[in-house]
């Protein structure tokens, strides 16, 4: 029934497991990343900055010398993170990315507070309905809601970052996409389409922005065992334990031996794209997936029994 919407993996115990939504993170901890001040003097806005990949990136940016504006709708988390990072380095503002005026206001806050905007990380995103639905059962209202945040919200961020960056002829705009936008049938349709559109958006505008000295790139993370993903797996596979759900992500889906993808890994990818080290990287989709999207297990007939 749901075969078109999932890839089935077999673990050591032979149990089948479907993939959770990639590129969504809702938990992170401090990393032991670089302290080389690679963003010294730079100013960043991070949408969805109160948790997950956004939080990990805010921590990484501040550790590397940037001042950040955390734009989110999770007020308590956002304010707490700003306090933890230090009010000289971080500011929280409420921002629903489906409202263009609020996105514009977050950008304007960065400029009014710090005099400029160097980095715009369009990271806010939603999963949509947790239930897996066949194409013929797709609720277009859910599709519209996911697109409003994951694609239209990103476009609003790109637009208003460009508004203040282009006159200065400098800046880095980064957009969170997903492996679901690269490889089909690994997530529900609204999420996959929204993330594929983000990659298309980056490619559409990168050439124009290059002529103003502004770079626009995407990051496509693989699956991370975050609280949201764990809730998805709990709904899809209630017979499995929490530890079983974690093994699905960290062992069954993971491509890299000895390494499990964490929000901090995505934050370091964003750090690179934000830094002057990536000064000639533009229109690129940096896939952080350990090789997940470069191959597929052949759908071959079973080997005949002897």
From TrEMBL:
Native organism: Lolium multiflorum
PANTHER family, per the entry: 3-OXOACYL-(ACYL-CARRIER-PROTEIN) REDUCTASE (AFU_ORTHOLOGUE AFUA_6G11210), OS07G0664400 PROTEIN
Sequence similarity: Belongs to the short-chain dehydrogenases/reductases (SDR) family.
Superkingdom of the organism of origin: Eukaryota
Protein name according to UniProt: Ketoreductase domain-containing protein
Keywords assigned: Oxidoreductase
Entry's Gene Ontology molecular function annotations: oxidoreductase activity
Keyword Oxidoreductase: yes
Coiled-coil region list: none
Keyword Transit peptide attached: no
Ranges of residues in domain Ketoreductase: 42-222
Stored SMART domains: PKS_KR
